[in-house]
Amino acid sequence: MIREFWVKNFLSIKDKQELNFVAKSAESELVTKMPDGTLLYKLGVFYGSNASGKSNMLTALNAVFSMLVNPLYDASESIMDFHPFKLTKDAPTEMYVSFYANDVRYDYYLRYNANYILREELNYYPKGTKVLFYQRDFVEKNIQADIKFGASLHLLPKTQESIRENTLNNHSVLSICLKYSFKEDILPFKNLHEWIMEMYHEVDGDENEIRGIVDILKEATLNPKKHLFYTKMLQKADLNIVDFRIVKESRLISQDYKERIEKENISESIKNQLLNPFTESVVFENQSSSGNFEISLNNQSKGTIKYIQILETLYDLITGPHVYYLDELGEDLHYDLLFYYLNVFLYNSDKSQLLITSQETSLLAQDIINENRGVVWFVEKNRETASSEYNRGDSFGLHKNLSLYNSYRIGRLGAKPELGSIFVDMED
Asked: Domains along the chain?
């Protein structure tokens, strides 16, 4: 779970903008208690007008973990996650995240530009007290970074030197775990790296795992626990679906297409896949008082498809300590179904965290949100600087009897578009 995060000079964020998920009270399903006693919100919701920068905060969170675990293999490669604010493009980007992995708190600071990581520092709290994991400083272009390791890691001198030699100036020290197989024991590195890779996900799901509905449901049919979860959630969602199964369908392949594929310089396995006369699909079993019947995937609504896609995230959230970022959650879903989805997450998860952007302002009227305003951030761009600003819902000093929803609706909390006249004058 994420405890705290701040970022500076990234996309629409010029000045330092902070998120803090520490809660004051445990008396809510929105809150979970970490082993060190810290109370954290499991949910974060970002509101704001279009182009306010809501999604950019999720992208920044994605970037800090991505850079922590993903290496580069050529010293001349540029850092892909360097996206500075346009008016300060020559300044470095800075990020800091305090997070938990395997119930241990870690604090990570990062400063970088388009070509080099200028500084990174990782501390952790294995016994409740802050100690150094590693610290790294940029020296110059063709010189190894200055890297120091914490004594508590018990790394052999040979191991330390191997890490230094294989850490390029454009990727993190920890990401070496994905790049190089050490013969020496670097268990603390491997454990942290594997935890982040498994539990901290990219925006809207890991890029290399974004799959279609057929692949998602096919996997579910092979896992009895997951299949049961999907069927129960589809039934509870009032979609009139009681089950599903994978079917094979024939497809027409033209002679021109076949000849073109045969000439392509690709492997035989890919050719066979492209020229397979059969494809897999899904049929859903629906119920009625007159008997059950089947409906094909092609005849399902956009809302049903969207709901199935996000069920995979929900399954992870309630079966393990995962962290997910979902952009514009609620799109294509009925409001009641969206709120139901969030409640299933909150009441069935323990140490998982879900951060979302949404335009569904009715969530602010729900008691569980209105009484826990620290889970909401209102985002708007400063008119003078064109930079995004993020304000937590409990930072406005609203009396507890005042409605968060009504206050936002009338513009008291900002983060709303200021629209012009509805009349359009086409004359100069």
From this structure: 1-204+327-428 (3.40.50), 209-322 (no CATH)
